[in-house]
Structures are given as structure tokens and as C-alpha cells.
Amino acid sequence: MKRLLLVLLAVVSLTACSTSSGTLTVNDAWARTASMGENGAAYFIIENGTKSDDMLLSASSDIAEATEIHMSMADSNGVMSMNMQEMVEIPAKGTIEFKTGGLHVMFINLNRDLKVGDSFSLILNFKNAGSMTIEIPVREY
Ligand SMILES: [Cu+2]
């Protein structure tokens, strides 16, 4: 009985701890439709509810030859280009939005079609939050 009480106390204090320090979450994930052999892209919102800065270090999936973190930007002539990002900073208590025309996860040379109603797993590797697997639904752009 004494042991059970101790275990219960430990569980309660762990729960209290994670609530007060906050967590890092990934929300509103989606990917655009694309065909096998093309490139695809996924978007989501990362909310860092913790008091520490974090970093997205890499992304991986099994739906393409390569999975990269890109930033789209327009030059002074309005010509769009994409730069591969070594990492993305997620400030403490901050939100980073991956969206069309900005940050995105790019799937190079898809090995399957991405049709509306499909979904697939994407693994995001964070410096502090560790590795998170998120399910990405495919939507019409
Ligand atoms: Cu890209």
C-alpha cells in the first residue's frame, strides 16, 4: 500500500511538472496533392510552449527519395527560389508556421501518389523535444 501511494505521488508530480513547463506541439499539418516522381510539400504550425528555445534539426519520411526542410523566398525581381535549411529555430513560447510561399518540408522524388484523403507519417527531429512522428493528411492546395 505504501509503495502504491509513492507511485501515485510520482505520477501526479510528473503531470504537474509537464503542465507548468509546457510542451512543443505540431498542429494543422497537411500536404499538397502530388504524383509519384514529382516533388511534394508539407506544412504545419510548430508551437513551442516551453521556456527554452528549440530547433528543428531534420525531417524524414519513407514516401520520397529525400525529405528536406526548405524556405521559399522571392528575390528583388520577384523570382521565387527555395533554400535548404540546416535547422529552424523555434523560440521559447514562440510559434513557427510552415506555409505555402515560406517554410515547408519538401519531398524530393515521391515514391507514391499523394491523393486527397491519403495520409502518411512524417518524423520531425528536434534538439530538445526529440523525435516526433506526425500524421499528415493530403489536401487539395
Ligand atoms: Cu522546397
Distance between the termini: 57 Å
Which ligands does the model contain, each kind named once? copper (II) ion
CATH architecture: Sandwich
Proportion in β-strands: over 45%
Low-confidence segments, given as residue ranges, are: 15-20
Shape: globular
Report on the structure:
Mean pLDDT is 90; it is low at 15-20. The N and C termini lie far apart (57 Å). Strand 1 and strand 2 (40-48) form a beta hairpin. The protein has one helix at 2-21, and strands at residues 24-32, 40-48, 54-60, 64-74, 80-84, 88-90, 95-98, 103-110, 119-126, 130-139. 14% of the residues lie in helices and 52% in strands. It has a single domain (22-139), classed as PCu(A)C copper chaperone (Immunoglobulin-like, Sandwich). By secondary structure, the chain is mainly beta. It is globular and about 55 Å long. Bound molecules: copper (II) ion. The site of copper (II) ion (CU) has 4 residues, from strand 8.
Features:
141 residues, mainly beta, Immunoglobulin-like, ten-stranded mixed sheet, 14% helix, 52% strand, binds copper (II) ion
In short:
With 141 residues, this protein is mainly beta. The chain contains 1 helix and 10 strands, in the order αββββββββββ. Helices cover 14% and strands 52% of the residues.
SSE layout:
Blueprint: H1 2-21, E1 24-32, E2 40-48, E3 54-60, E4 64-74, E5 80-84, E6 88-90, E7 95-98, E8 103-110, E9 119-126, E10 130-139
Parallel strand pairs: 1-10
Antiparallel strand pairs: 1-2, 2-7, 2-8, 3-6, 3-9, 4-5, 4-8, 9-10
